[in-house]
């Protein structure tokens, strides 16, 4: 049995502790906003926050989440998260949308660590998140817009 | 995917009677189109679509619009949403003619029902070829305008005024004496009226939504909050997850399997043989993967092939210079023209297999229950998926219920002539349904590796071209030979191949908008064990590269400006010339570039849309190109959603750049070398250029934008690289080369 604190709630899960956190989140906890894209921490579609830091849940064994706080796209609530999601919607960033939960999780973690990111900071923080629709142009613009609204 | 003549595809897949381009009649809708010969010929289910059935007091004037008593307007979207924004575009067209309140618009995806929801460019229900907006434009304008006319009639009768005295704006109907009603208040009365014919459409100068920026994407909120439901997210009682152990090489056959260890994995419920391999069915993805890993499989590799990518290229190069190809355009003058030319360019180009690598690996949920098979997936081609699911299940097509969800990308992958991801799910569902406890829904989920190694690629191609130039630099002869697998051969579309020419292999070389000197264009279409498939912009992915780099080289040889040289060949093509001039103007063509940076240009016509791009390229320290800026000019007729056109041009640039820089699937002894995003590299944010899009404000009927932005990108970059380095790239991707500043 694993105890996982997810989106503020402690949940008990009957899973092999080596199960990747991604599959515990999706198949055991039923939270499907976090996506499977590659399984090897190459695409970032599975990005969640563990104690506020972005993590590729497809490559993190579930036991690692024990005693830590996991946040998925469903549990976002901080001012930075709200600003990011608003900017995403304002600028119509999404296309197919499949990678966007992961993009948003990375963007929120960036803004929480660095409220005024430069283009270089954005490249660094988001380079692990692939978007095959190549919405990168708008992802960058939305992060800058969110940063501007947070500052104001 | 190519654009078919009306009904061609429907005819090709078994319809004896080409469907008519017609407005949807209420009578046909209520019968679900049962009366049409097309439906009978295709043996499609002759039932009214469940979601569009009239319910309660809803006003359902046609197959595309429902109006609820609370004034909610629901549009039924017949095209597949893979990210290209078709949903929002189609809803914009309906809302425009209906004068609906955009804030009250909801959408539903159409069920499988070919007669009612067919793509009027294909004659079959399906999405591709950048046709969603183009084929729907007259149909949905008529549907919206007819609905509006019925609401106006209902108001006129209620208020006892002439219909001409009534105005409709943003979902509110107003009378001359200050009467006012929302759509829902008149829905019941409108539903009782006959459906009028030949309702006039809006004068485009009165458009309030089309061509404006008010209509934002209808899926932005769901997709920015994790709430959008994809196939991987489907939840059903008792749903199991399956992964399939697949052949390690094309042509490999399963000799034996020992599944004892797999069955011992906690959570594994069934291990079943299916035509695709051995399926491990479990309570979740992780036990399914662990079970698959525990299988002991013995494969017969004696028939595995092709031998290798390089051997294929060697064969293709030989074929390119051999006689006996099919003629896409026959010219008796070419040999003499080339002999008499003052200058000649001879070039051989090589293009690799490309995987679509959409973010959501292929998947489908299938469930045999109550004498039917039900599926949930990103069904991009419902007509095919329904028929192939029926065949796999051993049921008639009317016993197939498709539930279509949005896709996490496709780029052509989900529209294929085998419905592979649908069929394998039905095969697994059928196999377990015979076992105790197996009458449950099952999701067959491909891993990234399964998806990347499974074939269905943009085919490998070779082009061998001789271009002759006269003394004055003008084109004086053009001989072109193309070698590559036919996408349509061996599929239900094979009858569209004319005189040995699959148009999707040569489109972009022939026909071409350029005034070429009566070119000879030949095609060889060898077969391989690897299944080919269209890949965002299909034949134009390689033909545009060849045409646009050769014309650039010809201009250089002729000592003429690359834009001016092309314009001289486009005197009878004002729209193509128009985008080229616009991109050149907005991109500052010919301006002095700083040392180490160069401009490149390309223009291409595909899917009835014209796109020109001017790029600015420099070199990274590792000798790879850095594309810094792309200026795009696009003429796609009436720009329905300008911001979504921009989004597609941005996306096409990124998608095209990924393939140009890194895209390559290689084969050794029938096995694919690449497996995941670490060795099949795609574009990441740090390599995305600034993209500046300019849309021609055209009055022509709208055409597609999902694909036409891809073809010009790679040749524009190659042309910039030639200026920067003196080197002409003949083999893609660029990552195969190391560039040095000249």
Automatic annotation (TrEMBL), chain A:
SUPFAM superfamilies per the UniProt record, alphabetical: 2Fe-2S ferredoxin-like (SSF54292), CO dehydrogenase ISP C-domain like (SSF47741)
Record-annotated 2Fe-2S ferredoxin-type domain positions: 1-76
Protein species of origin: Hydrocarboniphaga effusa AP103
Protein name: [2Fe-2S]-binding protein
Presence of the UniProt keyword Lipid biosynthesis in the record: no
Keyword annotations of the record: 2Fe-2S, Iron, Iron-sulfur, Metal-binding, Oxidoreductase
UniProt keyword Oxidoreductase, yes or no: yes
MF annotations from Gene Ontology: 2 iron, 2 sulfur cluster binding; metal ion binding; oxidoreductase activity
PANTHER family per record: BLR6218 PROTEIN, OXIDOREDUCTASE WITH IRON-SULFUR SUBUNIT
Pfam families in the record: Fer2, Fer2_2
Lineage top rank: taxon: Bacteria
InterPro entries attached to this UniProt entry: 2Fe-2S-bd (IPR002888), 2Fe-2S-bd_dom_sf (IPR036884), 2Fe-2S_ferredoxin-like_sf (IPR036010), 2Fe-2S_ferredoxin-type (IPR001041), 2Fe2S_fd_BS (IPR006058), Beta-grasp_dom_sf (IPR012675), Diverse_Oxidoreductases (IPR051452)
Automatic annotation (TrEMBL), chain B:
Record organism: Hydrocarboniphaga effusa AP103
Domain Aldehyde oxidase/xanthine dehydrogenase a/b hammerhead: 225-303
SUPFAM superfamilies per the UniProt record, alphabetical: Molybdenum cofactor-binding domain
The protein, known as: Aldehyde oxidase/xanthine dehydrogenase a/b hammerhead domain-containing protein
GO molecular function: oxidoreductase activity
């Amino acid at each position: 049995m694993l105890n996982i604190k997810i989106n503020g709630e402690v949940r008990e899960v009957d899973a092999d502790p080596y199960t990747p956190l991604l599959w515990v989140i999706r198949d055991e906890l039923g939270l499907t906003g976090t996506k499977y894209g590659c399984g090897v921490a190459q695409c970032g579609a599975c990005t969640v926050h563990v104690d506020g830091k972005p993590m590729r849940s497809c490559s993190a064994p579930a036991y690692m989440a024990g005693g830590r706080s996991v946040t998925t796209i469903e549990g976002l609530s901080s001012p930075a998260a709200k600003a990011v999601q608003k900017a995403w919607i304002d600028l119509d960033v999404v296309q197919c949308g499949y990678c966007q939960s992961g993009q948003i999780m990375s963007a929120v973690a960036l803004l929480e660590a660095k409220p005024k990111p430069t283009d270089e900071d954005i490249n660094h923080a988001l380079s692990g998140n692939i978007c095959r629709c190549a919405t990168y142009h708008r992802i960058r613009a939305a992060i800058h817009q969110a940063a501007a609204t947070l500052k104001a | 995917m190519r654009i078919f003549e009306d009904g061609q595809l429907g005819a090709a897949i078994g319809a004896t009677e080409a469907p008519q381009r017609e407005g949807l009649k209420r009578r046909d809708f209520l019968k679900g189109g049962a009366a049409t010969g097309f439906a009978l010929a295709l043996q499609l289910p002759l039932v009214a679509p469940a979601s569009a059935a009239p319910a309660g007091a809803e006003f359902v004037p046609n197959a595309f619009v429902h109006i609820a008593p609370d004034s909610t307007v629901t549009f039924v979207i017949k095209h597949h949403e893979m990210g290209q924004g078709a949903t929002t575009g189609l809803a914009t067209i309906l809302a425009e003619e209906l004068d609906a309140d955009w804030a009250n618009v909801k959408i539903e995806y159409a069920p499988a029902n070919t007669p009612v929801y067919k793509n009027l460019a294909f004659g079959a229900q399906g999405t591709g070829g950048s046709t969603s907006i183009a084929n729907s434009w007259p149909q949905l304008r008529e549907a919206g305008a007819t609905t509006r006319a019925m609401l106006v009639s209902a108001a006129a009768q209620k208020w006892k005024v002439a219909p001409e005295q009534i105005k409709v704006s943003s979902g509110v109907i107003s009378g001359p004496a200050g009467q006012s009603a929302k759509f829902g208040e008149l829905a019941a009365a409108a539903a009782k009226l006959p459906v009028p014919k030949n309702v006039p459409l809006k004068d485009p100068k009165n458009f309030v939504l089309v061509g404006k920026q008010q209509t934002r994407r209808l899926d932005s909120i769901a997709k920015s909050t994790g709430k959008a439901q994809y196939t991987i997210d489907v939840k059903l009682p008792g749903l199991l997850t399956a992964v399939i152990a697949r052949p390690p090489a094309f042509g490999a056959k399963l000799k034996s399997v020992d599944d004892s260890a797999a069955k011992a994995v906690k959570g594994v419920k069934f291990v079943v043989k299916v035509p695709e391999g051995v399926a491990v069915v479990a309570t979740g993805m992780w036990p399914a993967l662990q079970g698959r890993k525990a299988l002991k499989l013995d494969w017969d590799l004696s028939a595995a092939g092709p031998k290798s990518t390089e051997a294929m290229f060697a064969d293709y190069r030989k074929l390119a210079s051999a006689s006996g190809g099919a003629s896409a355009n026959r010219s008796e003058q070419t040999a003499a023209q080339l002999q008499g030319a003052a200058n000649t360019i001879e070039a051989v180009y090589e293009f690799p297999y490309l995987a679509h690598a959409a973010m959501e690996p292929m998947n489908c949920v299938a469930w045999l229950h109550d004498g039917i098979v039900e599926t949930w997936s990103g069904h991009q081609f419902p007509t095919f998926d329904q028929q192939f699911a029926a065949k796999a299940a051993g049921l008639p097509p009317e016993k197939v219920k498709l539930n279509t969800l949005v896709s996490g990308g496709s780029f052509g992958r989900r529209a294929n002539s085998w419905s592979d991801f649908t069929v394998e799910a039905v095969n697994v569902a059928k196999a377990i349904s015979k076992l105790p406890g197996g009458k449950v829904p099952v999701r067959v989920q491909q891993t990234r590796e399964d998806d990347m190694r499974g074939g269905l690629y943009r085919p490998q191609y070779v082009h061998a071209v001789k271009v002759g130039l006269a003394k004055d630099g003008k084109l004086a002869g053009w001989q072109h030979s193309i070698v590559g697998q036919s996408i349509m051969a061996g599929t239900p579309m094979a009858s569209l191949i004319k005189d040995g020419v699959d148009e999707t292999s040569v489109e972009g070389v022939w026909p071409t908008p350029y005034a070429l000197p009566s070119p000879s264009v030949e095609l060889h279409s060898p077969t391989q064990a690897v299944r080919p498939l269209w890949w965002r912009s299909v034949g134009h992915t390689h033909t545009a590269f060849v045409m646009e780099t050769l014309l650039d080289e010809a201009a250089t040889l002729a000592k003429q400006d690359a834009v001016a040289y092309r314009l001289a060949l486009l005197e009878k093509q004002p729209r193509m010339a128009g985008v080229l001039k616009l991109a050149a103007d907005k991109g500052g063509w010919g301006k002095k570039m700083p040392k180490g940076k160069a401009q490149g240009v390309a223009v291409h016509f595909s899917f009835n849309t014209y796109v020109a791009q001017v790029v600015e390229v420099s070199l990274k320290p590792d000798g790879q190109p850095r594309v810094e800026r792309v200026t795009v000019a696009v003429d796609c007729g009436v720009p329905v959603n300008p911001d979504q056109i921009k989004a597609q041009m941005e996306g096409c640039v990124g998608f095209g750049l990924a393939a140009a820089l890194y895209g390559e699937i290689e084969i050794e002894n029938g096995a694919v070398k690449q497996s995941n995003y670490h060795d099949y590299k795609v574009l990441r944010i740090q390599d995305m250029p600034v993209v500046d899009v300019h849309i021609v404000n055209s009055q022509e009927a709208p055409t597609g934008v999902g694909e036409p932005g891809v073809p010009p990108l790679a040749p524009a970059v190659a042309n910039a690289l030639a200026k920067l380095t003196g080197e002409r790239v003949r083999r893609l991707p660029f990552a195969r080369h190391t560039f040095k500043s000249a």
